[in-house]
Every structure is written in C-alpha cells, then in structure tokens.
Amino acid sequence: MKKVFFTTETRRQHRVSPRKQNLCVPLRNLSVSVVKAAVFLLLFLPAVFAQAPYQRIVNAHKEPGNWLTYSGNYQGHRHSSLSQINTTNVARLKPLWVYQMRDPGKVETTPLVVDGTLYISEKPHVVTALDGRTGRPLWTYRRTTPPNARGCCGIPNRGLAILDDTLYLTTFDSHLVALDMHTGKPRWDVLVADYKLGYTMTAAPLALKDKIIVGVAGGEYGIRGFLDAYDAKTGKRLWRFWTVPGPGEPGNETWEGDSWKTGGAPTWVTGSYDPALNLIYWGTGNPAPDWNGDDREGDNLYSDCLLALDADTGKRRWHFQFTPHDLYDWDANQVPVLFDAVVNDKPRKLIAQANRNAFYYVLDRVTGEFLSGTPYIKQTWAKGLDAKGRPIKLPNTEPTTEGTLLYPGLGGATNWYSPTYSPQTKLFYVLARENHPQVFYKANTPYHAGDLFEGGGARDLAGVEPFGVVKALEATTGQQRWEFKLHAPAMAGLLSTAGGLVFGGSPEGYFYALDATTGKPLWQFMAGAQIVTNPVSYLVNGKQHVAITAGPALFVFALD
Amino acid sequence: MKLLKGLSLLVGSALTLFSLALSSANNKAQGEKLYQVHCAACHGPNGEGGLGPTLAAPQLTRASDDEALFKIIKDGIAGTEMPSSRLEVEAIKELVRWVRNLGQRPVEKIGGDATRGGKLYFTKGDCASCHAINGRGSAFGPDLSDIGLRRGATHLRASLIEPEADVPKSFLMFRPGTALPENFLQVRVVTADGKRIKGVRINEDTFTIHLRELSGRVHSFFKSELKELHKDWGKSPMPSYRSVFTGEEMEDVVAFLVSLRGER
To answer: Does A329 participate in catalysis according to the annotation?
Structure first.
C-alpha cells in the first residue's frame, strides 16, 4: 500500500449529539455503581450510541430531517418527505448561507446530513464537516492525489457514506478511506485497485449492515470491472464480484478470446439496496473498448447490466442486460429506483431505471423479470424491445470509420445524475437530454495498460441545438405525464419533496423548483456557476433546508 | 548452406525494409483518413481552411512545433471552436504528421492587397459599424481581431458574398469555452407593453434572454414576461457585399481579413 499523506484540522469541537447530551447530564446525581455501569456502557457499547447505525439508514424515511445515504434512502428515491417548503411558499425560498471551497472547478458531491451537521466531499480529496446553522467548517480532512492518476472526465467525487460514527470516502487513486465523523481523523485507508491500470473511484460508497460497498470507474481504460464489499470496522475486503466473468464462470463465453481481461463494465455510480430481500442493485457500465466491438464478439456480460447481488456473499441473484454488445458507451450505471406497485393486477416489487440508451425499464426486483421498456426520448438505434427486453437493433447502426449518426449521442438520454421517485405522485422524474444526436466513429485501439482504450469516439453535429428536459414519467409504465424544457443540456440530478416540488439545476447556474404535478416552474435562484450535482433536503433546528453545490460552492436555502 | 543463409538474410532484410516502407505508407494513409473524418469539415479536405484556419501552411501560428500541434489536437483550444479529441496517442501523432504534410503544399492564393482592403473595410464596407478589430468598431457582430487565425480565405469570401450561407453554427457543448455568444442568432421580441425589439442574442438561459440592438444597447428579459419571442434561425443581420465591392475590392478585403492575427 502506498504511503498516504493527510492533514486534519479540528477547527471546532464537534457538537455533541442530543442523545449523548441527555445521557451525560443526569450522571452527576447517580450512585457510584450506576455511574460505573454507565461508564461501562459508554466504553464497551459505542455502537449503541453511534450516530448513524444501520437501522437508522434502513428507516431513513422515518427521519426526513437527515440525509443518511447518497440517494436519501436505500431505495434510490432521492425524495424528501418534508413539506414545510411547498408549492404555496417556495417563491419565498432564500439562500441562508454559502460555503466556498478552496479548490476551484465544479463539484459533484451529494452532502450527507446527520443531526444538523453536513458532510461533503470536495475536490480532489477533501472532506469537510459543516455546521448546518452557519456553514462554518467543523473539521477538514485533506489527502493528496498522485498527479499521474487519470480518468476520462475530470476528478469528481460524488459524496460520502456514513455508518455508525464513521464516514467513508473513495479516492481517485482507488482507495477507500474511513474517517471519524467527529474529528475527520482517518481510521483506515485501504487500496481497492491499481490506478496505474486506469481504475479510479468517484462514487459515494453504499453502507449497509456492517459493510461498505464500493464500485470503480475506468471503462475508458480497459479495466476489468468489479463491485467490492469491505468490513466497515477494519477495511478488510469481504467479497468481490467481477462484472466481467473469468474463464469457467458463467458469462465468460460472451467474450471473444481474451477480451474479457480488458472488458470494462465499471460500477461508477452508487447503487440501491432492498434490506428485506438483502439484495444490492447496481448498474454496470460500457464494455471496453467503447466504440469498437470487433475484438469482443458476444453480448459482453455483465456490461450495461443491472445486477442483483446477495449483500452478504456478493453472489449474483439475477442480471438484466440493457444494451448487449454495446458500441456507444451507453453505461447502465444510472441509479436504480425501487418501489412497489400493482402491474397487470398483480402486486409487484419493482425496480426501474431510466437508461442512457433512451429506454425506461421496469423489472421485477425479486426475479429480474422484464415487465416493460419505453423510449422516453428520441432514439434511432432500436426498432424496439422484444418480449424479454432485449433490443431489436436497426441495421446500419454500428460505428464506422466514417461515422454513424444516431440518437441519442454519447452523453445518452440521461447519465449519472440522479432521478427521483415521489411516493406521493407515483411519478419517476428524470433529467433527459433531447436533440443531441452524434456521429459515432470507430478507430483501432491497441491496449496499453493505463492508457485510454476507447476504439473511437463521438462527434457533434454542427448546427444542432440540444437541450435539457425534466420529464415526469408514470413510474410503472414510463408514460410521460409532463416535461419542462431547459435551455441547455444539464448534468444535475433531481430531488422530489412531499411539498409537491421537484428541485433541479442548470448549467447556467439556476437552482429551480417545479410543481411536481404539473411541471410548472415556481421558483429559481441564479447561483452564478454550473450546477452538476444532486440536491438534498433536511432539517436544522426543525426548519427545512434545501442544499446544492454550484461551481465550487455549497448553497443552502430556507424559507425567510 | 552458408550461401543460402546469406541469401535468406538478404531477402529477410529486404522484406523488413519493404514492410517498413509499407507501414509508413499505411500510416500516411491512416493519417489522411483520420484527418478527413475529424478535421476536414472545418479545416478543408486539403487544409485550405474554412470554418477553421488554413493548415496548408509551413508555419502554424498556434503550433510552432509538433508537440504544440499534438497538444492542440488533444486538448483543443479554449475560447475557440476547436474541440478536444478522444483519439489515441498514436492516432493523434498520425494526424500531426498529416497536418505537417499539408504544410508542404502550396498555400491558398490570396491575390488581394491587404492595405487597400483595410481602407475598404472602414470606408466603403462600413464593416466597423458591426464588427470590432482590436477594440475599434461595434460589438454587434463577431469580433474580427484574429479572424485570420480562425477562418480561411475561401470561407471569408463566401461569407461576404452570402452571409446567410454560413451563419455561425455554435454548439451548446462548446459554449462554456467559446467566445461565440449564442451564435449571433437574430431575435425579435414583443414586450409586455407591446414594444418591438430586434437584435442578436448574446445570452440565453432557461428563464431569461439578452439581446443587443444594432445601436449597441443591451436588453434583458424574463422569457415568461414577453408577449412574443421569435428566433430567426439561418438569418443573418449582415448584408451581402456582392454588389458593394467589385471583384478586385473583394479580394483586397479578404486579404485584409486573412492578415488579422490578433494583437501581438
């Protein structure tokens, strides 16, 4: 393991949690034996008092005042059941404070909020705890990045995970770091993968039970993708699921020759989890090389798949492949959304994904059975989907040396930014990109470890004006209920709230709120820098807040 | 036996030499192929220039050596329409070789006299009423201070004769990095109180639009507050100079524009 440098500044004593305060005060008046017992409890049962134990995350919907995991709950909803800010008063929403980060550039983090404190990841590897009332930093953790660590698309970090009283950070040089949530001091730091082979880590980990689940990026570098689970206490690896199966494993036959060794299928966006089924749902990315499939004949499992893995063993329960033998870099890493509904008169446990390939899919999340798939933006690559959900490809849609024009383009119908599901409206809201066809071209790509391994690319078409659009889809069918056009294609996720609102961001820097039922714009705020992240909502001192980063600054809003 | 060995060695060497020559020819073909797919649309099939500057020149202003050229192809040029590339290192090297090869060809001939063209620009053409050169002139149209770096003679000549044939085609993805303000789209609005205003779009977002009148005055509107908003795609506020300049004068003006390389 490489030596890791870090500094920790403790700028202010961390506020003691209300639960701990209540426990401490009466101690003075108690008899010695009771004091001893209490001391024993404090010393040996820290987990009992840990701030964010697993059960708290499982029941995240019962405490909307906090934001305990990347998508707000394990189901991937990014929904807040708070309704203080609602359609009648959102026009009065005002910025409360702004936290300016030290490193310039856009930030893609989703803050976590625990009992009034915000925890954010900044660029490149800075973690800061902020007082939710003022935005003043409580502590900062800094870690250096090797200058030669490379990725396709900047050095983003999309946020943290929390479990008990530990925060978890993935790093661009593919480490997983555990930090004391009260001080920012590192507890352990383990190597996940070799960045020199093109592995990077940008996603927030997913903490569940006693495990930390992490994925990797690097689909443009010919990595062999995987999903890992680590022991939350020690950092010991518990299991690894290779998203490109090796020889002798089922699925390896879908790769020509040795192409599986550099097959890609990265796991670069945080997945979802069903605690009752004990299944992790995680999307995988493109097969490598992206645009040239000549040397990887076959379906290339498990690229562009949704995987259902047993959380304890990492064993595959089922998989569903959206784009077999992908030639367009249409990753299937979009956040999977879990909900229960009646389909064809039958109550079902469902999982939905608005896929980068332009189709909205609904599957049974117990079995992986395909139920429906509907295009939600223009697409020109598939005639449709067959009964099992496999695309029926149109002829002459493969990238060529001269280029092939297709909808959607490389950026896809949507991308890594989060959708949201509102249990109130039963709608699935997704930010899509319209009118962005691109010319996909193929090139030769010899593999050199750690170098780009893409086999082509995509070119824009002159005179085309793509734009962003927020779409409200009926969650069980994918039928569009309304849409709201943005002037430019955006890269910002959505948040729905029980106040009947959908919040989102734009590249010009608008943070805006739409009526969740009609799509009508109700409020906007110009933050002055590109918004490329996901919003969250929570309570501080009983008052609802909404937060989002714009450029390198975190903006927090509340009613005046 | 010895002879045979010697002979085979000789044949082997000849074959190696032949295959080396062949691979060099292949690379050249590869470089040209890549150029036609990735560069020709803007820089012309033979590097004569078009939307982008001419590359058929022995010296490239922005790329003094191969390393600089490699970096430009890889990273693009911020503030211009030159995008970055996702091509592999070897492919970019092939492109560098091909672009250098273009420089060995005759440069596009510009017959006109730049000094005379400069005078025409400011007098008969009245171009400065819309365009600025190094701060001199209006900001209504695109700034021309370094237009010679960005556009070839053929393109400039065509734009003077038929401006609407090539209204700048901006692209949103590049906008954050380009100097082109929302592609000079001509916009007409009717305000809530019935006022009609025409100008070029200098900024637009989801909720607002800014436009500049010919007088230079800038207006900012919430789109939701406008009665009407028309975007005249494909239109250009620029008049044709076909009947303004004689053939010779046109060449002089083109020569003048090509000579504009920004303030040094």
So the answer is: yes
Domain spans of chain A? 6-142+154-559
Q: Give the mean pLDDT of chain B.
A: 80
Picking from A217, A418, A411, A215, the residue whose alpha carbon sits closest to that of residue A328 is: A411
Mutate to test the interface with A, among B34, B88, B167, B171 (most CBs of A within 10 A): B88
Q: In the structure encoding, which two tokens stand for residue A434, read together?
A: 């319209």
Instruction: Give, in order, the Cα–Cα distances in Å from B261 to each of B52, B134, B149, B171.
Output: 13, 10, 6, 24
Cβ contacts of A292 within 8 Å, gap of 6 or more = A327, A399, A442, A443, A444, A445, A454, A455, A456
Q: Parallel, antiparallel, or unpaired: how do β-strands A521-526 and A536-540 relate?
A: unpaired
Task: Please pick, among A228, A304, A329, A331, the residue that the annotation labels catalytic.
Answer: A329
What whole-number distance in Å separates Cα of residue B150 and Cα of residue B167?
Answer: 15
Instruction: Please state the ipTM of this predicted complex.
Output: 0.81
CB A209 within 8 A of CB A54: yes
Q: Which residue has the tokens 């490193």?
A: A103
Which CATH number applies to B186-232: 2.40.50.100, 1.20.210.10, 3.40.1190.10, 2.30.30.100?
2.30.30.100
| pLDDT above 50 for B185 | yes
Residue B129 has pLDDT above 60, yes or no: yes
Note the pLDDT of residue A29.
46
**Taking the domain B114-166+239-258, which CATH number applies?**
1.10.760.10
pLDDT value at residue B232: 86
Full 3-state SS string of A277-325? CCEEEEECCCECCCCCCCCCCCCCCCCCEEEEEECCCCCEEEEEECCCC
Any CB–CB contact under 8 A between B38 and chain A?
A: yes
Q: What's the rounded Cα separation, in Å, for the pair B262 and B264? A: 6
How large is the greatest C-alpha to C-alpha distance in chain B, in angstroms?
Answer: 102
Cα nearest neighbour of B42 on chain A: A462
Q: What is the mean pLDDT of residues B118-123?
A: 96
Residue type, position A558, single letter: A
* Residue in A402, A463, A530 closest to B37 by CB: A402
A532: which 2 tokens? 């490329």
How big is the CA angle at B33 (ends B29 and B34), to the nearest 5 degrees? 120
What number is the average pLDDT over the span B132-149? 87
Of the listed ranges A289-298, A436-445, A470-479, B218-227, the least confidently predicted one is A436-445
Topology annotation, domain A6-142+154-559 = Methanol Dehydrogenase; Chain A (2.140.10)
Sheet holding A404-406, edge to edge: A404-406, A438-442, A456-459
Other C-beta atoms closer than 10 Å to the C-beta of B126 total 13
The reported pLDDT for the residue numbered B136 is 93
The fraction of chain B above a pLDDT of 70, given in percent, is 80
**Residue A350's pLDDT is what?**
98
In angstroms, the CA A410 to CA A438 distance is 7
Q: What is the pTM of this model?
A: 0.84
Contacts with A150 from chain B: Cβ below 8 Å: none
Which H, E and C letters describe A111-143, residue by residue?
CEEECCEEEEEECCCEEEEEECCCCCEEEEEEE
Beta strands in A197-290 (DSSP E): 206-208, 211-215, 226-231, 237-242, 272-274, 279-283
- Top pLDDT among B173 and B263 is at B263
